[in-house]
Write a structure and sequence with these properties.
478 residues; 16 helices; 6-stranded parallel beta sheet; Rossmann fold; 47% helix; 2 domains; binds GDP-alpha-D-glucose; alpha/beta
């Protein structure tokens, strides 16, 4: 089997790199398969970047480039995070479009392609990740890259009525057709994409099993819900439970029960709605005042994007209001932390919690929901309160599913989780854990890579069939 080349916008080499779900998934694939991870090193430069810098760390090979400052602003902060991210998460109010930023998006993808293609060998398989790099496949093809190239979208793909708010939506959909395999988190995402293809090129353009035929090539689409490394998380959570940071946190609770939330600070994660719901919970169930502590961990990532500065201020005000109203001399209702913790410590916090709140307004999958289930003690598990608008809700049907906009509904679910009998908690947890084991992180990357590998055989078959057709045509016309 060929070498695996992963490509993502950001390569998390720097210690300051923001944590994220994509990195968790790509790292798992790299650890299992080796290969190369290509992308941005997180730094900006005043000049055109030269050849990629090769770094070997923990036996994994990375090839990285800096981004020119103007591309960082227009491509990364602009089109990727100011246009595509809000649009694909259905935030039309927070979405903007500028031609100049779209041009920078194309330019950044051309830059990635030009620096990546000299590193490629004929047997390689190329796996491109996420919305920053949708046009990369097209740019690689334009440079003569013929190896199988697959794309996985970690975030949702929007319904056509939302997608078409983007003036260049047709270019985005067309760019996806340069890949051999396009993967989505849920069937809904794949259907939205196929529906956009049908609207643009007619119902006949989509074949059986969600294939698309375009320019004589067959493009496969698939649903690959990302999972977690269940065994590793279970072990690291159990081990971290005895570690100093988790023990200190537990002692500070002085017997109170713990509600936890762990999210990158992002408006899509529904943190404001969550804070409001927690306040409602304290109002609706006053017997819980002083009995629970809500620990929200929200490390900062894209601070330089304007919308993130705003949500940060709003969250500080909201948690301050709740603490101002309900706190006592020896009790703080919300502990809201903007810092990054080692992953193992986070798993220890998840294990220590009776309730985990995942209230995303829209989310491709949400790995924290899955990590919480994997981190629990099966004999005395906590309860997951999960947004029905996160991809994870398709699999974790035994969680308490809520509408993230329904403040009272979430408050009620928190109370139900805190008062749920042990037998019911165990039964719900066992079913969820079995689902996670069946579709873990290894299955995610293995299934994707196997399908991509199969594309190699198909595309050489298609090439041969094309040649044969042309030969027959030229014979019959001569
Ligand atoms: C995107 C999609 C999809 C969080 N805080 C810290 C930290 N984390 C880790 C969590 C988890 C990951 O980051 C976050 O993953 P999510 O899936 O919840 O969210 P996104 O970052 O938005 O990920 C998402 C995912 O891609 C994968 O396809 O599920 O829908 O939006 O693993 O534990 N890790 C460390 N310190 C922290 O403070 N080390």
């Amino acid at each position: 089997m060929g070498r695996l080349i992963n490509v993502s916008n950001r390569v998390p080499l720097a210690k300051t790199a923001a944590p994220g779900g994509l990195a968790v998934g790509v790292l798992a694939a790299m650890r299992a398969r080796g290969g190369l991870w290509f992308g941005w090193n997180g730094e900006t430069t005043g000049q055109e970047p030269g050849e990629p810098e090769i770094t070997i760390r923990d036996s994994l090979t990375y090839a990285t480039i800096p981004l020119p400052q103007t591309l960082y602003e227009r491509y990364y902060s602009g089109f990727a995070n100011g246009t595509l991210w809000p649009l694909f998460h259905y935030f039309l109010a927070g979405f903007r479009y500028e031609d100049q930023e779209y041009a920078a998006y194309e330019q950044a993808n051309a830059l990635f392609a030009s620096r990546l293609s000299p590193l490629l060998a004929p047997g390689d398989l190329i796996w491109v990740h996420d919305y920053h790099l949708i046009p990369l496949g097209e740019k690689l093809r334009a440079l003569g890259v013929r190896q199988p190239v697959g794309f996985f979208l970690h975030i949702p793909f929007p319904h056509f009525e939302v997608l078409r708010a983007l003036p260049t939506f047709a270019e985005i959909v067309r760019a996806l057709l340069a890949y051999d395999l396009v993967g989505f988190q849920t069937e809904t995402d794949r259907e939205s994409f196929l529906n956009a293809v049908r609207v643009l090129w007619g119902a006949q353009s989509v074949g059986d099993g969600g294939t698309v035929v375009s320019g004589g090539r067959t493009i496969r689409t698939g649903v690959f819900p990302i999972g977690v490394d269940v065994q590793a998380i279970t072990q690291s959570a159990a081990k971290a439970a005895g570690s100093a940071p988790v023990q200190r946190m537990m002692q500070s609770l002085v017997g109170r029960r713990l509600i936890v939330g762990v999210d990158r600070l992002d408006y899509s994660k529904g943190l404001l709605e969550r804070f409001q719901a927690y306040r409602q919970f304290l109002e609706s169930y006053p017997e819980q005042i002083g009995q629970v502590t809500f620990l929200q961990i929200a490390p900062l990532g894209r601070q330089k994007v304007q919308a993130y500065a705003q949500i940060r201020d709003e969250l500080e005000q909201s948690s301050g209001r709740t603490n101002g109203r309900f706190a006592d001399a020896d009790w703080t209702p919300i502990r809201y932390l903007n810092r990054n913790f080692p992953h193992a410590t986070l798993m220890g916090f998840l294990r220590a919690a009776q309730v985990c709140l995942v209230t995303a307004l829209r989310d491709g999958m949400n790995l924290v929901a899955k990590e919480f289930i994997a981190a629990q003690d099966p004999d005395d598990p906590g309860v997951l309160v999960l947004s029905n608008r996160a991809g994870a809700a398709c699999e974790l049907t035994e969680a308490l599913l809520i509408n993230p906009y329904d403040t009272r509904g979430i408050a009620g679910a928190i109370q139900r989780a805190l008062t749920m009998p042990l037998a019911e908690r165990r039964a719900r947890h066992a079913t969820s854990l079995a689902t996670l084991r069946e579709n873990d992180i290894h299955r995610w990357h293995t299934r994707f890579i196997d399908e991509l590998q199969a594309a190699r055989g198909r595309s050489s078959g298609e090439l041969a069939a094309g040649r044969l057709r042309r030969l027959q045509q030229s014979l019959s016309s001569s």
